[in-house]
Amino acid sequence: MRIALFITCVNDLAFPATGIAVTRILRRLGHTVDFPADQTCCGQMHANTGYRAEAMPMVRNYVDVFDSYDAIVVPSGSCTAMIRDQYPRLHPPATSVAARTYELSELLVDVLGVTDVGAEFPETVTYHPTCHGLRMLRLGDRPLTLLRQVRGIKLVELGDAEECCGFGGTFALKNPDVSTAMLTDKCARVRDTGARVLAAADNSCLAHIGGGLDRHRSGVRAVHYAEILAETGATS
Amino acid sequence: MSHPVAPATGSGRIRTPLPFPTAAKPAVADTQLRANLHRATRTIRAKRARVVDEVPDWEALRDAGSAIKADVQRRLPELLEQFEASATAAGATVHWARDAAEACRIVVALTRAAGADEVVKVKSMATQEIELNEALEAAGIAAYETDLAELIVQLGEDTPSHILVPAIHYNRAQIREIFQRRMSDAPADLSDEPAALAEAARVHLRRRFLSARVAVSGANFAVADTGTLVVVESEGNGRMCLTLPETLISVVGVEKLLPTFTDLEVFLQLLPRSSTGERMNPYTSMWTGVTPGDGPQDVHVVLVDNGRSAVLADPVGRPALSCIRCSACLNVCPVYERAGGHAYGSVYPGPIGAILSPQLTGVADNASLPYASTLCGACYDVCPVKINIPEILVHLRQQAPHPPAERATMRVLSWVMRSPRRWAVALRLARAGAGPLGAYRERRTGARTLRRLPWPASAWTRSRDLPLPAPQTFREWWGKQ
């Protein structure tokens, strides 16, 4: 199976560790991962802010770059949702590649049939299901199923987990007061858990929540759950 | 041959006087308001979830509700004519109003013709939308709201903050204060116990019910094949208004139609569970024209367009007309919970308001509302008629006028990101540019984040640290392998 990694623009620039983690997990499981260098961005920020015409070149670029792969793995629920939910409507030729695009936990659990990726991570972790993964992709329990198999991990439940953190792409900039109010509540729920690590499937939401946690010096680290799945306990 | 004319947009209380972020700011800062909204929305949300879970065929009911409403939208003109014919045959008089002003003129004229200088009102979003109370007052006619929450809002000289719970933004101490200040017959020793407050309102309203000769209502549903109007309520005040007065004037949005009486079977299951979290609402009143010797002997129906034809003309935005005003989307919306209803300007707040109001007025007149959402999708999940609110929000954002600086930024980003070569260069430049700063921040604070940035990035750094580009991009890491 030819698997390609779509790293997403935010991860490429600010959170490369997530892509490195996905690569390590898949290689450890015996798969070859391609990283087509011509990829850029899924266009979600443009499309969701009301700039469909400006998003279209990115939509077409994604189809050109990834159409020859059997599976494309994306370590972001919201970018996967953009591709799977919006692409077929915006650009019908994208329908087939959109159907072969998977969020990491979908690829592992549904396509590769793996729930134990051989990870070890002795920390207290709480998990925030991000909105697009939760309600557009219906990821359900998949990321937690993977995390539960991690050796040494202590998973603690997050209160009001299914409530939006207030990021919402450009919402965080256009409505800073409401966004901050939602963030404050989310950070409080995270701190209530006593966890030292907050995991999620979207680095953009994590940048927002993590930025709020850092601002209040909470000592909680925000990481993409792929980074937990990549840990094996061996010093790297 | 004449060119087709775009349907007229609506008027009334459906425009935001201030942009949503500006109007939300004081609400977010009001801790009492935040606490009231938090408690109320969470209580109703939990109740709704419980009673919806009991229904094994809930998804099938949602599909049925959605399909019936889509059918109504496909053949609205035909169904409206059928309703007019059925209602007229049953003894009602049907009037047509293009906009808010015309609807108000009709109701004022009918009230005057009945020789009345006061009306009692059943809670109705349509009459709030057309600002009927204000129009009646200007004509020297007193309008008395009889729904408890609407009464509180009216006495407080306020506007509703929620579709179902107009006084959601008040707690009981605040309600007691409003009653003591504005309700002349409130007992001097009125306590803030809910039962005492309700009793004071009951005594106050009883006189109004018994003296009023004209009632004004809306309708939850208007059935085309029988000409029947339906009002669903909880307090019995609606039943009093619909049976005691001699004249009944019902103001109904044209989208409220259902093709047949049996379609009510679906909606009378969907509505109470979605709105109040009840299995069945306490009062469902139905009236079909005039019944000699029973109830109002003069019945008028004012069918209001007020921008609805414009909504109907847009195939993507059209499902907003399926809304049955249950307010489940408000109660589940994290943005509504923090900002409250007044921030939305229109009588339709929350997620449904964010798609309905801009469509009724034209998006340019309500340009901030489609952005008053994180697109989290919780509203779509609870909508009993499956309105894909996030999809319509994104659709309306395409039509919204964009700020020039934002448009320029988006165009530059699109130009960079459409070319893999330009994107790779931009990543390298951004990483290199942030290099020394990132290293400095990492030494100082242990994290590559910024704490304070000038406008417009201050919108981010006011409440959260901003991550800086990593020392090496992912593609640089990949290239080195």
Describe it for me?
The complex is a heterodimer of chains A (236) and B (481). Chain A has helices spanning 9-14, 16-28, 44-49, 52-66, 77-90, 95-99, 104-111, 131-136, 142-148, 171-174, 176-193, 203-215, 225-230; strands at 3-5, 33-34, 71-74, 101-103, 124-127, 154-156, 197-200, 221-224. Chain A has 236 residues and is an alpha/beta fold. In chain A, the strands form two sheets. In chain A, strands 2-1-3-4 form a four-stranded parallel sheet, sandwiched between helices. In chain A, strands 6-5-7-8 form a four-stranded parallel sheet, sandwiched between helices. In chain A, β7 (197-200), α12 (203-215) and β8 (221-224) form a beta-alpha-beta unit. The longest helix of chain A is centred in the C-terminal third of the chain and has 18 residues, at 176-193. Chain A is globular, with a radius of gyration of 17 Å. Chain B has 481 residues and is α/β, with parallel strands linked by helices. Chain B is 50% helix and 11% strand. Chain B has helices spanning 20-29, 31-53, 58-74, 76-89, 100-113, 125-129, 132-138, 148-155, 172-182, 194-211, 237-243, 264-275, 308-312, 328-332, 334-339, 350-361, 378-382, 389-399, 404-417, 420-445, 458-461, 474-480, and strands spanning 93-97, 118-121, 142-145, 214-217, 221-223, 228-233, 247-253, 257-258, 283-287, 298-304, 449-450, 466-467. In chain B, the strands form three sheets. In chain B, strands 1-10-7-4-2-3 form a six-stranded parallel sheet, with helices on both faces. A four-stranded mixed sheet of chain B has the order 8-5-6-9. A two-stranded antiparallel ribbon of chain B has the order 11-12. The longest helix of chain B is centred in the last third of the chain and has 26 residues, at 420-445. The radius of gyration of chain B is 26 Å and the shape is globular. At the A-B interface, α1, α2, α3, α4 and α8 of A face α1, α15, α17, α18 and α19 of B.
